[in-house]
Design a protein that fits this description.
CATH architecture of the largest domain: Sandwich
Number of domains: 2
Strand content: over 45%
Order of helices and strands: EEEEEEEEHH
CATH superfamily of the largest domain: F0F1 ATP synthase delta/epsilon subunit, N-terminal
CATH class of the largest domain: Mainly Beta
Distance between the termini: 28 Å
Number of strands: 8
CATH topology of the largest domain: ATP Synthase, domain 1
Number of helices: 2
Oligomer: single chain
Radius of gyration: 16 Å
Length: 132
Amino acid sequence: MKVCIMAPDRVFLDIDAEEVVLPTTTGQIGVLSNHTPLITGIDMGIMLLREQAEWSAIALLRGFAFIQDNVVTILVNEAEFPKNIDPEVAQAEYAEAEAELAKAQTKTEVYLAGLKCKRARVRYQVTQVLQG
């Protein structure tokens, strides 16, 4: 099936894949060839992608996915490959975001700090998910 990830500034990825696991707003879903048509929200999370026998991971940061006729089109605010993220920097940003969330007091501060923390966690986790 064809998998296309589009960010606001570019086509991030356009490949053929055998399997995709998407981080939707209602949980993870697996997509194989001949999947039923679907439109779903994409949460901040890790997308897993299998090309032949190789798995890869991509950080997706909110958007939508459209699945139809063996084409998975993903429109996201941001996407990142793990190889483009320094794990030590990502871990430090995650720790900083957690500390900021712990100090937040107003509803707005908690909401914004929560988004920052979730984004930082996803960016750090994607550097760790397929290691080992």
